[in-house]
Design brief:
Elements lengths: L9 H4 L2 H33 L2 H8 L1 H29 L3 H36 L4 H16 L1 H16 L4 H24 L3 H25 L16 H33 L3 H37 L3 H34 L6 H14 L7 H12 L4 H21 L7 H5 L1 H19 L15
């Protein structure tokens, strides 16, 4: 049964560049505050505790956390796509069932991530050859973080639901509130109570729990088809299959990214604590680029999904051109800022001149090549929004992950330098972008694998 949505859907009707930006900026600011969680942790422990604590919070532990959490966030993107399709098609009942299936998946998935994360913490840190002086604090940070991971998973799923229906503002408001709380708790636990990395981990899970509660309450108070009713939370078999069909490849793609980053982190670990701390600091600066590209990716996925569901295929392609232009301009600006002002920006994280010097060497290799990445984010988001998740995953796994792993094993032992490790990024971005351009030009991504009755011009 289909019901008319209560208001005009500007994603499928409005001026593309204007609606894209109106949707993009709340996501961008939301991603900024999401990134600020870990950045605040790094800044506070780096200044109040030392470079060992900085490496513990942002080094091997963060890489492993990103592997497990990133897999589920990728998996949950399947829910965003399915909901955006049904919302764009104005299918009230399917939207409701998809929302309740998604929340059920986040609860079960969060419990699995918690158990696995705590269970593999020490083994994974040892496998990455984590320096001895940061092993125990890294382990403490991981165990506390994973113990409180379920609210984080629920928030990400709930925020994805809101964005799927075109609401990118409320997830931003919830993140701002919880991020302010996180920073305040960081300062209290670390600067006042002297709890070190345990303090920042506890502060993070408390603040993430608050953001999850605000998101759930917003969904429960909704007056539209995406309203959440706690008693209706359950799996709907066919919708779960559709979510997993799109989400599993995205989750595997995220996991492959993380696996290649694990190998890179292992290579970085071999250079010692100063280099690990430098890599951590650069990761925080580099995070600005990733959060902006991620916001573009979420925007185009939702835009493509709703317009695909509404049958407006030309509008899908126009939104891709607009988004690519915006992403290109942004990447060039960020390359300039990071390269030009890195010396000043790095002082936020450490005063250690050796760490800063190592970090600036990394920046000179990676940051000028930001523009080579944009086609991966925008074109893969478009394909996924139209229901095509498998091929983009395969392209990414080969171009970014497998080639990066080959580079680490083949080149780094020969030229054992930090710059050799860092060069794996621009090299694999360029190759993978070329693969995505070829696939996008083929037009095969417009043929919905999950709907054989849909004809696409």
């Amino acid at each position: 049964m289909k019901k008319q949505l209560p208001a005009a859907n500007q994603i499928t009707e409005g001026v593309i560049w204007k609606q894209l930006l109106l949707f993009f900026f709340p996501i961008l600011f939301g991603t900024f505050f999401q990134q600020l969680y870990n950045t605040a942790d790094a800044v506070i422990v780096g200044n109040f505790v030392g470079k060992e604590a900085l490496a513990s919070v942002g080094g091997p532990a963060a890489t492993i956390i990103n592997l497990l959490v990133g897999f589920f966030v990728g998996l949950s993107s399947g829910a965003t796509v399915i909901i955006s399709h049904h919302y764009g098609a104005q299918d009230h009942d399917r939207v409701s069932d998809s929302v309740h299936t998604s929340i059920a998946l986040s609860i079960v998935g969060g419990a699995i991530v918690m158990a696995v994360g705590i269970g593999v913490a020490r083994i994974s840190l040892e496998a990455m050859h984590t320096p001895e002086d940061i092993m125990e604090p890294s382990l403490t940070y991981m165990r506390i973080y994973f113990a409180g991971i379920i609210p984080s998973i629920i928030y990400n799923m709930g925020a994805g639901i809101l964005r799927a229906v075109g609401d990118s503002k409320r997830p931003l408001y919830f993140l701002i509130a919880s991020c302010v709380i996180n920073i305040g708790l960081d300062l209290f636990f670390v600067a006042v109570l002297k709890m070190g990395v345990a303090g920042v981990a506890i502060a993070t899970i408390i603040s993430q729990t608050i953001s999850a509660l605000m998101t759930v309450i917003a969904l429960m108070r909704a007056r539209d088809s995406y309203r959440l009713v706690l008693q209706k939370i359950r799996f709907h078999k066919q919708l779960l299959i559709n979510i997993l069909r799109i989400g599993l490849p995205a989750g595997l793609q995220s996991a492959m990214y993380a696996v290649s980053n694990l190998l890179i982190q292992s290579s970085i670990n071999s250079f010692g604590t100063d280099t690990v701390a430098a890599w951590t600091a650069y990761g925080k600066l580099d995070g600005i680029f990733w959060m902006i590209m991620g916001a573009y990716g979420v925007s185009i996925t939702t835009f493509a999904g709703q317009n695909y569901g509404a049958g407006k295929y030309d509008r899908v392609k126009k939104s891709v051109r607009v988004c690519l232009g915006l992403a290109a301009a942004t990447s060039l600006l960020l390359s300039f800022i990071v390269v030009r002002y890195s010396g000043t920006l790095l002082l936020l994280f450490t005063q250690d001149q050796e760490v800063i010097a190592i970090c600036q060497g990394m920046i000179r290799v990676v940051s000028p090549a930001y523009i080579t990445y944009i086609c991966i984010e925008i074109l893969s988001g478009t394909c996924r929004g139209c229901g095509d998740s498998l091929i983009p995953t395969l392209l990414t796994c080969f171009g970014v992950c497998i080639l990066r792993i080959v580079w680490i094993f083949a080149a780094v032992p020969v030229w054992h330098e930090v710059a050799t490790v860092a060069f794996s990024y621009p090299l694999t971005w360029t190759i993978t972008s070329l693969l995505f351009i070829l696939y996008y030009k083929s037009g095969r991504w417009m043929k919905h694998r999950g709907d054989k009755n849909r004809s696409v011009p």
